Structures are given as C-alpha cells and as structure tokens.
Amino acid sequence: MITWIKGGDIIDPRLGTQKKLDILISKGRIEKLLTPGSFQPPGGGEVKTVDASGMFVTPGLIDMHVHFREPGEEYKETIASGSTAAAAGGFTAVACMPNTNPVNDSRSVTEFVLERARKANVVRLYPVAAISKGQKGESLTEFGDLKRAGAVAVSDDGRPVTSSELMRRAIEYARFFQLPVISHCQDLSLSSEGVMHEGSISTRLGLSGIPAATEEIMVVRDILLAKLTGYPVHIAHVSTEGSVAFIRRAKGEGIPVTAETAPHYFSLDHTAVIGYDTNAKMYPPLRESKDVDAIKRGLSEGVIDVIATDHAPHSPLEKDVEFDKASFGIIGLQTALPLTLDLVREGVMDLPGAIAKLSCNPAAILNTKGGVIEEGKEADLTIIDLNKEYVFTEERIKSKSHNSPFIGVKMKGIAVLTMVKGRIVWESNELNPGS
Amino acid sequence: MYTFNHKNLLGIDQLSVGDINMILDTADAFLEISSRDIKKAPTLRGKSIVNFFYEPSARTKASFEMAAKRLSADTLSLSANESSMVKGETLIDTAQNLQAMNPDIIVLRHPSSGAPHFLAKHLEAGVINAGDGMHEHPSQALLDLFTIRKKKGRIKGLRVVIIGDIAHSRVAGSDIRALKKMGAEVTVSGPPTMIPTDVESLGTQVVSDPTRALKGKDVIMMLRIQLERQSGILFPSLREYSNFFGLNKELLKGAKKDVIIMHPGPINRGVEITWDVADGPFSVILDQVSNGVAIRMALLYLLIGGE
Ligand SMILES: [Zn+2]
Ligand SMILES: [Zn+2]
Fold first, then answer.
1. Of B164, B148, B140, nearest to B289 (Cα)?
2. A286: domain CATH number?
3. Where are the beta strands (DSSP E) in A241-292?
4. Looking at the domain assignment, is residue A433 inside a domain?
5. Which of B112, B199, B202 sits opposite A325 (nearest CB)?
6. Which residues contact A144 (CB under 8 A, 6 or more apart)?
7. Edge to edge, what strands does the sheet with B74-79 contain?
8. What confidence score (pLDDT) does residue B226 get?
9. Is there a smaller number of Cβ atoms within 10 Å at the N or the C end of chain B?
10. A178-199 average pLDDT score
C-alpha cells in the first residue's frame, strides 16, 4: 500500500526552504519526492491519497520535554493519553521526563515506559532518565544501563540538582555514554516559598515571589560546568531576559550549551496570574513583558534552539485549590503549534525556522531520528493548516488533564494530520474534505 | 441616592471612592448605636453570618462578631481547629459544606492569598475578606480611613507613613490601596528585606530610614512584627529591629506636632512601638478598635442588609 501526499508545500527546516512536492510513502518510509503532477496513481485502489493542497507538510514535530505521569499518577495522564494529545498537537515524538513515581532512575522503569508506549502505539517516546537516584541529588544513576534500556538523555527535571559537584560529575560521566544532559535551572534556596514571578504583580497579589535570579544563578552555573567539562548542557525552559543574555554570551564564547523555551514564555506574562488563576502557575513562572520580548529575540537570533512544551498535566485535585497550594505546571501539547505560528505571523521567525525549533533541532540535541523529509527516511510527517481559526475549547483536549491557561483563547493554525513511520496517528476532520 | 452594589468585599481595588465614602458615612451612623445604653438594632434580624477563621485572630473575629450581634444577626464562628480543614479537607469541600448551611455572608480569614476570591467563586453567599495571606485586609484599611477622617477631618492630601514589615503585611496591602484611592500620599518604611519588590507600582514611595520617613507626616502607621518571622533572615534580632525601626519618644521628636499614631494590633510593646508612645497623646490605637466595630457593622449592613 502506498500513501500519496499531494499538493502540499514541503518544509525543509534544515535548509530553511519550502517547496511544492508530492510525497510517496511505502513500508513506513518516504519512497519518493516528486514534482507535482508527475505521479499517476495506478488503478486498483492500493494508493491512499492525502490532499494537502493549501497545507504545509513538515517533518514530524518533536517535543523534547513532556511529563506523562506514568507510572504513578495515571489519574493525571497516561502514556496512552499523553501520546494521543501529542499526535493531535502534531508531534510524532516526545521525550518524557523522569519525575514519575517511581522515578525513572532504573532500567526497569525505562523499559516499563517504553513498553507502555509500544502498547499505546501512537507516537515515538524517548525516555529521559534521572541524573540522580530517586532524583534526590545525592548519587548518580546507572547512565550506561539506562542508555542500553533506551533512555535518550538524563535530567533531574522537576527536582533539580542542587550540588554543583554532582552536576559536574553527571556531565563528565554522561560524556562517556554520549548522553545529553538537560538541566532544570532553579536555585531552590532562593525561591523556597515562591509561587509566581517576583515583581509588581506578586506584590499586588500578596504572593511569594520567584525572582529571575532563581533561574539565572543556575543557568550561569551550568554554563560554567559545560565550560569546565567541555561537554554540552541543554538548558530547559528558559524564561528570563537574563538567561537569554547569559546563554548568548556562552555560545559566543564557544561554550557547548543549547537551550529550549516553552510557548507560554513567549505568549503570556505574569499578569496572567491576576485573579489567582492556578493555570498560570508553573515553574519557571510567567515573567514580565521585557522577558517575553527577550525570549522572542532569543528565538529569532538562534540563542534558543528549541521550543518544547513542558507539558505537565494536573487534575482539579492539584489545581482547584488556593493558589499557593496548587501544583506547578500546565499542559501544552495541543497549543504549542498555533502559539509558535503566532511568532511566524509576528515576524519573529520564518516558517522553516520555527519548524526547525520543533523538529530537527531537538532531534540533533537528543541525537535521535527525525527532523527531515528525505527519500529513504522513515515517514514521520505533520501536515499543518496555517490558517485554520478556532477557539481552543476543553472539548478539543485529548490529555486527561485540562490545566491550560489557553482554554477559551482564539488560535490560528493546527495539525490536520500526523504520521509516524508512514502510519496516520492523527487525522483531524478539518483536513480538506473529500480526500 | 448612592447605591452600594457589591456582594463580596474581597479587596480595596473593587471599591470606588463613592463606595468608600458611603461605608465611612454608614459607619458614622452606627457609631452612634455603639454609644447607646442598649447597643442593638434589629437591622439584620434573620440574617446569618459565618465567621470562618483559618488563623487565630481574637481581635478581628471578636470585632466581626460584635458587629453582627449589634445588628441582631445570627452568627456562627468556626476556627481552623474546630473545622475539618486541619484533617485535610480542601477549601472547595469546605465551601460546599458552608453553602449547605445557606448563610448570607461568610467572613473569611485565611493564610493563603486569594483564598476569599476562590471561595467567592464557589459560593452563592457573599464573602468578606478578613485577611488573606500577605494580600489584603480591607476592613482594617476602612477602619483606618475612618479613624483618620474622624481625627483629621479629611483624608485627601494627608501624608501618611507606614513603618514595618510591608512585604508580609496584608494590612499594608489594603492601607496603601485605600489611602491612595482617597487621595493621601503614602510612604513606606522599614528594613529593605521587608519592602516588597516594585512596591512603587502601588503608588507609594520608599524611604527605608524611619527617622527621615516620618518627617512632615500627618499619620504614622506602625505594623506588627510577626514574631514567627524571626528566622534571622529578614532581620537579625528583635533588639536590633526595635533600635532601628521601632517607634520611640526619641524618634517621635522629628514628627509633626499634630501627628497621629496608629497600629492595627495586637501590639508587641517594646518591639515596633514603646509603651509610652503606644499609650501617649498621639496614639489613636484604641479609637481604631471601637471604630472597627462600626466599620464592620457598616459592611455587613451594606452587603446584606439591603434586601
Ligand atoms: Zn523543569
Ligand atoms: Zn518539566
């Protein structure tokens, strides 16, 4: 059976180009890229045609930072429900952070997670293993065994490594196994009671603050450790003007550091907390408009390499409570694409540039497949309708949890079809009818 | 005639200047009841008021209870140790249980900023914020305005300094907003560790040194030092605090001759204010207490007495 995607504009994020090409897919791989009109389907019905005219076809999107809560908190999200949300958001692969219960700090948990993903059979799942046993920040996990089990990177996301010594050794040790190290930057001692960004709004609302320095101190530490060890560190969820400046400078000096931000850091600022909306509570917190501007500049100048969601599902049990008692985090898989496309419309990035931050860049950092549309490669593809306008309603949410600050917000742009290894894992009824 | 159109009192921001004047004028009328032999009016007969205090607060609770009784309302007071909150009941459970009692209004004191806003969203009854976390304590600010107006004859144009732990004080949170709204000029003072980030965005200026801060001011408001904050991180010791930021006779020499001194209570005598100053001729601290009952009567009347 052959799948024929016809009439679409193909984005090549590595070359920064877009071109009208038809794609022929068979046995899970891209068999041929053809000039439109040159393919005549044979009779007999063994060709499935996907009409992508007016749409953009991109390499399958990769989200290198999600929390799927399995094992341990399946009432918030399972690997199956999270994978479905990912596919609906246009993602063909996700990297799952290790702060589950139990923590993914051993071969057995890594294998369990991969087994669940195989069962769900939706998107590719890349486990990120913990840096320290139990994420306690005391001793290293078995990086080698974890890598053999299928972990693609190490991180203590959610409960960051406080000890600089341990972080240094983790980076050095990771080098031997060529495992990427992802750092959640937070000086816990500087924000022990903080629940939102420290500034005029925290003062107005009487909420304890998390100063920008809480993040920046650790960004600088990890940059210096990358310099010391000569091995890359990837900075997760950058949210402040200062972090962008420090990373820009480090890159200028040739220090091996990469960085990601999340869509909420370029779409919202701390005023979203007014009214004590717990769906505007996450770590790092929503910052000020000057930080939002700096994040956009960082994306546009290539200081920030990746857009990742930090998809963090929570139930009403954790969110429908007093603001200071609420858990940190929001879901993001189904809003990342339209929010990123807003930046394209604003002129912050061109379309191939934006897609690069959602595909080939995270693939390069994680050293995984994907991020290209090339003959012979596995067919992980996303078809995007750039102009579809809709309100993001709760009914659209595929995740088990609904903790999003974007519910009720007008969006533009959507993934209409998501394909993993040639198999359609998500198809919206908004795709061209009659195809 | 001016109508007061609120179901809840969650914070000062929701009130207009007209609203505040109406509250103060109504309190004036109720102050008269408090001076009668029989201190009771039938105004709120048949209404029920729940005082729900998640934090110990003998004074504010007593003040609301007294206000409710003088207006003949039925009152029920719950505190955290009597409620199941301590056993892990969530605020939303509590809200549902309270709603089942069908009260007209709930007076809430809670350690989380925004808890009254949360409760108001989930309840049909009105909510009065009797202090939420480090956010607001609006009835305190209204009684402070009332006291100032009675002593000074006006609020507009007065110069007020608030001295102490501004960052953790809901009293300061409400007083700054209320005073600014009514046209006073507000300065805050205290150790820099206790001045909140971007407090200027509330329209105040910061003068850390109290000696300079109280010069030329018509009103000095002292804040209570919360003894539980003595971790050694915000200030080294009570002794040093009172030496540099406490109000004493010596410091008062630099103040205006007709200054008034306020304190929301309870006082830590010898810490933020010395005995002689607290009991001295400039102090209006006891007036604040009796005015508090009148203000809370006015609030209850305006919020639920209209039907
Ligand atoms: Zn994190
Ligand atoms: Zn995370």
1. B140
2. 3.20.20.140
3. 257-261
4. no
5. B112
6. A176, A177
7. B74-79, B48-53, B105-110, B126-132
8. 83
9. N
10. 95
Domain count, chain A: 2
pTM of the model: 0.94
Can A157 be counted among the known catalytic residues? no
Which pLDDT tens digit goes with each residue over A249-290?
999 999 999 999 999 999 999 999 999 999 999 999 999 999
CB contact under 8 A, B114 and A322: yes
Among candidates B92, B170, B201 on the partner chain, residue whose Cβ is nearest the Cβ of A203: B201
Which two structure tokens, joined as six digits, stand for B301?
């009347």
A interface mutation test: which of B113, B175, B233 has the most A CBs within 10 A?
A: B113
Instruction: Report pLDDT for B299.
Output: 98
Residue A215: domain span: 60-366
- Regarding whether A100 and A25 lie in a shared domain, the answer is no
Amino acid at position A266, single letter: F
Q: Report d(CA B253, CA A298) in Å as an integer.
A: 55
**Which DSSP state fits B14?**
G
The tally of CA atoms less than 13 A away on the side-chain side of residue B279 is: 6
Place of tokens 């891209």: A30
Q: Which residue shows structure tokens 């090339």?
A: A374
CA distances for A80 relative to A117, A121, A311, A424, B91, angstroms:
7, 8, 14, 16, 32
For B201, the token pair is 């965005």
Amino acid type, B294: A
- Residue recorded with tokens 């993903």: A117
Q: Which residues pair with A132 in a beta bridge?
A: A140
This complex has an ipTM of 0.93
